Amino acid sequence: MAGAFPDAAAAQLLPDRVLVNASGRAGTDLSGPWNWSVDPYRDGVAGFHGEAPGRTHQRYADVDVDAETRKDPYALWELDMRRAPVTSLPSSWITHDATMRYYDGLVWYQRRFEAAPRPGERQFLHFGAVDYRASIYVNGALVGTHEGGFTPFALEVTGKLRAGENQITIGVDSERSNDTVPPTVTDWETYGGVIRPVRLVTTPATYVDDAWIRLTGAGRIRASMTLDGPSAAGRPVRVRIPALGLTLSGTADSQGRWTGEAAAPRALKRWSPESPTLYDVRFESGEDVLSDRIGFRTLEVRGTRILLNGKPIFLRGISLHEEELGKEPTRAITPAAARALLSEIKDGLHGNFVRLAHYPHSEVMTRMADELGLIVWSEVPVYWRVAFARPETLAVARRMLAENILRDRNRASIALWSVANETPVSEPRNAFLTTLVRDVRALDDSRLVTAALLTRRDEKNGRIEMVIDDPLVAQLDVMAINTYNGWYSGDRLEALPAIGWRSGATKPLILSEFGADAKAGFLDAGLRRKFSEEFQAEYYRQTLAMADSIPFLAGMSPWILKDFRSPRRQHPVYQQGWNRKGLISETGERKQAFGVLADYYSKRTPDSR
Ligand code: GCB
Fold first, then answer.
1. ipTM
2. Which residue has the CA at smallest separation from atom 9 of ligand 1?
3. What DSSP letter does each residue of 141-204 carry, written as one string?
4. Same domain, yes or no, for 410 and 305?
5. pLDDT (tens digit, 9 = 90+) per residue, 365-382?
6. Glycoside hydrolase family 2 catalytic domain: from which residue to which, for each copy (predicted)?
7. C-alpha 187 to ligand 1 mean position (Å)
8. Count of domains forming the chain
């Protein structure tokens, strides 16, 4: 069971197991060929009178249909998953064939794999992410379900595997509703599917389920481990950083938990964007050893500033969707794809910060940010109009937030956990988000909490003022505002620098979004119409001048690095299914505004304006 949570009822929302750093454990990667079958009427979960599907309609049945029909030629099997078309997972079904482009519903995947379960060992199936709902069957029996398209989960299958060949079937349902997180309408492509790797992981009977280590504000190294298994209670644990000669050790309590700390060694080099030092860390208990690469740094807010390792920092960032470069992108982020995107920020834009919008990105991305030295904003898809008054929706959001934080608590790059994006103020919404903020602090009090908020526009005697008075600000460490003056508002671009910004709170502000669409290559000399590169470049110049007049501004992540797929964006000439606010096109061509921001960032420090 994972770490502390505010109250006992909430603890039930935590995942049964974390299996932290699952990709660093021994196991079998189930990536590769899987059979797939589309199921628009959800026939595989209910028959035509709503009854449980008979064996011949179960996509998950543990059966060799071909062999069955040889035995009994009159048997009617309308399905045969083993001879269904083959695709490669992880991927979104958009890649399977052209008819799947806008499919929103249930799809089944199946493959067989070899296992050699040994006594005294445990087996888990670990899923990086399945978008949006998943039902998992092993050898014909349901072993678990999961809701939420972007966070990992693990199911124990000890005792459920055969020696030799086994079968796994995943029912993936991408359909969302007003009650899901996110709800139906967003501004990005859903990319339903098994979008991240599936692994069969083997552990000893008692193993390290969760572990973290960090540098505290007081300059000490604090570490924690949670063991799971029959001999967890009272078991010795040890954390080692060989390069620093540091060892912390102790004994797990009756719940299998241990937390300890020690003075940070003098030789410790702190992680920063300029020097992203990572150390090999080993979490050890009995025969179980979990290794990871982890950086150490401190983070705090003082007045209106954000301090990294005790020094003020201006977050020179950009927002990013999880979508690789290319004409037909999906969300299958490989290390090479993550490196290509993040290097464009680090080297091309002279950035030090990335907002991973609007949902938890692949672990590949946060690990790459650790390695390259980019500060990360991580968020959950509590986006626009969520069913804030509905307790079940709150439970889903809390679980998702916990899964995200538990996955990434060891990433030095992550500085901000964001709980929401552009959610209109109301009593139920304030209560919902207050609960999420409290959860973040309980799960990880070493990072800053934020949310992308909306402003109120005040206009008096021709002077425009953007007022930040969202009641949620009182709960946050860092205020964040998405602002589109000059794009969605009719403001003239020349008027932007004179816009004033006001907040009653003494806290740092991040402009978490601003942006304008431009079709790469649409040059419109002189006229600067919307959608031209010149308009976007001028929009950036004027918005940056406005930003420079905000005394409490501590960073920005304009919208967005790359043009991204969005079914909402159907302007027939400029968009064609793409949100064009990228500073680079989908294939990586830099638009004029890229140079404007890169130039600004090359000079921007916490004190320059
Ligand atoms: C926003 C949203 C973002 C959209 C963007 C836009 O405020 O947070 O998801 O894609 O605006 O382009 O309108």
1. 0.99
2. 187
3. EEEEEEE-SSS-EEEE-TTTPPSEEEEEEEEEE----TTSSS-S--SS----EE-S-EEEEEEE
4. yes
5. 999 999 999 999 999 999
6. 300-539
7. 6
8. 3
